[in-house]
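Predict structure. Chain length: 301.
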Amino acid sequence: MNSQGTGDDGFLLERVAVRRAFGRAATTYDASAELQQRVRGELLERLDLVRIEPAAVLDLGTGTGHAALALKRRYPKSLVVGLDLAESMLREAGRRQTLLRRFRRVCADAAGLPFRTASFDMVFSNLMLQWCDEPDRVFAECRRVLRPGGLLTFASFGPDTLHELRHAWSAADDRVHVSRFIDMHDLGDALLRAGLAEPVMDVERHVMTYAEVRNLMLDLKAIGAHNASAGRPRGLTGKAALARMTAAYEAFRCDGKLPATYEVVYGHAWAPVVDPRRAARGAAGETLVPISQIGRRESAV
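Prediction complete.
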């Protein structure tokens, strides 16, 4: 990372900053989370296409608890657990509960889940993964806590997300103002590395529109989407830099509105019924060799 924080390390997320930002946004999140609500609805609808009756469901990055409540409504006999990094979000999530639809709340990091191995039949995660630097660690934890045949289903942001804002800030200075988002294919590869099976990935694009760039910035602040990158500016952004960014964003204005593009990556994968890392081992520790790998033996003479 160079002195301005624009190298690859400048995009690393500071977990304390992420937790603080979402904690502060707990009471304002729902009013500005229009896109998050839309994606959550799509992710829930996709569950209609899979046959699963989970006994236990983990809502990873539950936020204010709307997905956890919807999952409890869909699977009323299931144990539903909502996990989030920010305690304030979990307090708001508690207000979503009703007498007949209650779910447990746990404060923890997705990269280090405080659950026993094979605890859940489903892990559901709506727009949380982009706040994790190492999807491999998160997917490995999902794989660990899923029971054989369990489902991981998630939505995250892809690299085209907020490209207008990223371009506009590049005209203002050389600091990191917009997070780096992970490509769909890289997420698919990470699922396989974690030992998850049959990954399915696809992408949708959503465009939100604003009268002024200031309104976009206020929405991002209200949902806790602060710049938590290591290379972010540490002081207040100067008026001159802000004016340059605002002017650069105007180049995207269309039909009187400023667009903000979001590339939404959807994915799901399954915990294999037989762990591929153990499939070649016998019960007593002997190595089992597939028939296709056994060579022809010559007759003795």
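Summary: DSSP finds ten helices and seven strands in the chain.
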